[in-house]
Amino acid sequence: MNTNSESNVNNSELGRSRLGLWSLGALLVLSAAAIGGIRYEIGGIDDSVLKVVVIGWVACGAMVGGAWLGGRANETDPFGLVWGYGLASGAMIMSAAMFLVPQAIGLAGSVGTPQFGGIGLAFGVILGYSAHTIGHRLTHLDLSMDITAAQISVHALSAGAIIGIVYGSMPSLGLLLGLAIVSHKGPAGYAAARRLRRDGRPVAVLLLPAAGVGLTAIPTAVLPIPEQPIINALVFGFAAGIFLHVAMDFLPKCETGSEIDQVLSLEENSHHLLDQLRTHAVASTLAGSFVVVVAWFVVG
User: Fold this and answer.
1) What percent of the chain has pLDDT over 70?
2) At CA 9, angle to CA 8 and CA 15, rounded to 5?
3) pLDDT tens per residue, range 164-219
4) How many angstroms separate the CA atoms of 208 and 22, rounded?
5) Longest alpha-carbon distance in the chain
6) Taking each helix axis from N to C terminus, what angle separates 101-109 and 115-135, rounded to the nearest 10 degrees?
7) Which residue blocks in 77-114 are alpha helix, DSSP H?
8) What span, in angstroms and rounded, lies between the C-alpha atoms of 56 and 198?
9) Checking phi first, is residue 112 left (phi over 0); if not, alpha (psi -120 to 50) or beta?
10) Cα 56 to chain centroid, rounded
11) DSSP assignment, residue 269?
């Protein structure tokens, strides 16, 4: 009986590893097709597709790197975790506010209805919150799939689709936006790997969400987008709302019961450390936002 159980576990882990490897292979094929100029429409590759290829692989590398570190770590450095989340969330908030919100309002304003940009933003925040809240119910179900990997995979695939649509709609957007948006993949991969290891589950399942951004960003970047200001305003506003929700969700929370508190739960002076970490949380979030502003001044 023990042998059969162990065999089932090994087969399950192997299957998940294969799924992750297939995902990486699919991302490689999509990237090669994009770089080679294979598109759904005649005319060769454009700058927006190249940008999403870069963003997809940066997201993949960041999550794989974070997961590798998290899987090998014997303990979690709470200060490193706070700074990882703070830098990423600050960068995401500033990027969405600088590059997406003005586009949404400006596009809708060009036809005299800037409110449509705000409508898209509001729906993005609300839908992001709704998906996160309802998705939490999956954790109470007895499913054959790993819930942590499933939730992160859905998030990565949906975020990639939005990134692809945004860059396809506005090819002049620079890499800074996309790189800031996926900056949370490193700390997210690290934290997810730590949770999986604590539960005795394989870290290899994170290969799918690692490749997820590129898997959907590259195809959606080549989809034809109607050149209608209202539609594009709704798209940019919706993207801004989704990314702002994700960024707010990644803000380092140094409260009782939070993930940071769970890291410190075995330490006698955890309340004192939580007070220290609150200062680091604010400093790291501000630093992440300033990095984006400085980079924008430098690279334009």
Assistant:
1) 81
2) 90
3) 999 988 888 888 889 998 988 988 888 888 888 877 788 888 888 999 999 999 99
4) 8
5) 71
6) 140
7) 78-95, 101-109
8) 28
9) left
10) 10
11) T
